[in-house]
Design goal:
This protein is of the alpha+beta class. The chain contains four helices and eight strands. Helices cover 29% and strands 30% of the residues. Helix 1 packs across helix 2.
Protein backbone atom coordinates (compact mmCIF):
# COMPACT_ATOMS: atom_id res chain seq x y z
CA UNK A 1 0.00 0.00 0.00
CA UNK A 2 2.86 2.37 0.87
CA UNK A 3 4.50 1.76 -2.56
CA UNK A 4 1.26 2.46 -4.35
CA UNK A 5 0.86 5.78 -2.50
CA UNK A 6 4.42 6.77 -3.35
CA UNK A 7 3.94 5.95 -7.05
CA UNK A 8 0.69 7.92 -7.10
CA UNK A 9 2.41 10.93 -5.51
CA UNK A 10 5.32 10.77 -7.97
CA UNK A 11 2.94 10.52 -10.91
CA UNK A 12 1.03 13.56 -9.66
CA UNK A 13 4.25 15.58 -9.37
CA UNK A 14 5.36 14.49 -12.85
CA UNK A 15 2.04 15.53 -14.37
CA UNK A 16 1.93 18.88 -12.59
CA UNK A 17 5.60 19.79 -13.19
CA UNK A 18 6.81 18.09 -16.38
CA UNK A 19 9.46 20.76 -16.97
CA UNK A 20 11.21 19.73 -13.75
CA UNK A 21 10.98 15.98 -14.36
CA UNK A 22 11.72 15.83 -18.11
CA UNK A 23 15.43 16.85 -17.94
CA UNK A 24 16.08 14.10 -15.40
CA UNK A 25 14.53 11.54 -17.74
CA UNK A 26 16.85 12.26 -20.68
CA UNK A 27 19.18 9.32 -21.12
CA UNK A 28 22.93 9.75 -21.71
CA UNK A 29 22.37 8.34 -25.22
CA UNK A 30 19.82 11.06 -25.97
CA UNK A 31 22.16 13.74 -24.63
CA UNK A 32 24.99 12.37 -26.80
CA UNK A 33 22.74 12.38 -29.87
CA UNK A 34 21.96 16.03 -29.20
CA UNK A 35 25.68 16.92 -29.25
CA UNK A 36 25.54 16.81 -33.04
CA UNK A 37 22.89 19.56 -33.04
CA UNK A 38 24.76 21.86 -30.69
CA UNK A 39 24.17 20.83 -27.09
CA UNK A 40 25.82 23.22 -24.65
CA UNK A 41 27.14 21.76 -21.41
CA UNK A 42 28.15 23.50 -18.20
CA UNK A 43 31.27 21.43 -17.56
CA UNK A 44 34.43 22.85 -19.15
CA UNK A 45 36.79 20.34 -20.74
CA UNK A 46 39.92 19.41 -18.78
CA UNK A 47 43.32 20.61 -20.01
CA UNK A 48 44.46 18.72 -23.12
CA UNK A 49 46.59 15.66 -22.54
CA UNK A 50 50.10 16.04 -23.95
CA UNK A 51 50.68 13.64 -26.84
CA UNK A 52 53.95 13.07 -28.62
CA UNK A 53 53.16 13.54 -32.31
CA UNK A 54 54.75 10.72 -34.33
CA UNK A 55 57.10 11.54 -37.20
CA UNK A 56 55.29 12.86 -40.32
CA UNK A 57 53.88 10.28 -42.73
CA UNK A 58 53.72 11.08 -46.43
CA UNK A 59 50.10 11.37 -47.57
CA UNK A 60 48.68 11.61 -44.02
CA UNK A 61 47.67 14.38 -41.61
CA UNK A 62 47.81 14.18 -37.83
CA UNK A 63 44.50 14.86 -36.03
CA UNK A 64 45.39 15.80 -32.43
CA UNK A 65 43.62 14.22 -29.48
CA UNK A 66 40.65 15.98 -27.89
CA UNK A 67 38.13 15.75 -25.07
CA UNK A 68 34.70 14.47 -26.12
CA UNK A 69 31.52 14.57 -24.02
CA UNK A 70 30.14 11.05 -23.54
CA UNK A 71 27.12 10.55 -21.35
CA UNK A 72 27.91 12.70 -18.35
CA UNK A 73 31.69 13.13 -18.53
CA UNK A 74 34.61 14.13 -20.73
CA UNK A 75 36.51 11.25 -22.34
CA UNK A 76 39.89 11.66 -24.07
CA UNK A 77 40.14 10.54 -27.71
CA UNK A 78 43.77 10.05 -28.67
CA UNK A 79 45.25 11.65 -31.78
CA UNK A 80 45.46 9.65 -35.00
CA UNK A 81 46.69 9.73 -38.60
CA UNK A 82 44.21 10.16 -41.45
CA UNK A 83 44.68 10.32 -45.22
CA UNK A 84 45.32 13.86 -46.42
CA UNK A 85 42.92 15.70 -48.73
CA UNK A 86 44.75 17.84 -51.25
CA UNK A 87 43.57 21.46 -51.23
CA UNK A 88 42.28 21.16 -47.65
CA UNK A 89 43.69 21.39 -44.16
CA UNK A 90 42.45 19.75 -40.97
CA UNK A 91 40.72 21.97 -38.41
CA UNK A 92 41.06 20.08 -35.09
CA UNK A 93 38.23 19.46 -32.64
CA UNK A 94 37.84 22.26 -30.12
CA UNK A 95 35.61 23.55 -27.36
CA UNK A 96 34.07 27.03 -27.51
CA UNK A 97 32.65 28.90 -24.54
CA UNK A 98 29.12 30.08 -25.44
CA UNK A 99 26.29 31.52 -23.35
CA UNK A 100 27.91 30.54 -20.05
CA UNK A 101 28.50 26.94 -21.18
CA UNK A 102 30.72 24.90 -23.47
CA UNK A 103 30.05 23.57 -26.98
CA UNK A 104 32.17 21.03 -28.87
CA UNK A 105 33.02 21.81 -32.48
CA UNK A 106 33.96 18.62 -34.31
CA UNK A 107 37.16 18.51 -36.35
CA UNK A 108 36.64 19.01 -40.07
CA UNK A 109 38.38 19.63 -43.37
CA UNK A 110 38.54 23.23 -44.58
CA UNK A 111 39.64 24.64 -47.94
CA UNK A 112 43.29 25.64 -47.99
CA UNK A 113 42.70 29.33 -48.84
CA UNK A 114 46.27 30.54 -48.24
CA UNK A 115 47.82 27.94 -50.51
CA UNK A 116 45.40 28.48 -53.41
CA UNK A 117 44.64 32.19 -52.94
CA UNK A 118 40.87 31.85 -53.33
CA UNK A 119 37.97 32.06 -50.93
CA UNK A 120 35.77 28.96 -50.70
CA UNK A 121 32.70 31.07 -49.83
CA UNK A 122 32.45 32.49 -53.39
Amino acid sequence: MMKRTLYTALAAVAISTPALIAPAMISPAAAQANMSIGLTIGTPPPAPIFEVVPAPRVGYVWAPGFWHWEGSRHVWHAGYWMPERRGYHWMPDRWNQVNGGWRHEAGHWDHDVERHGWNHWH
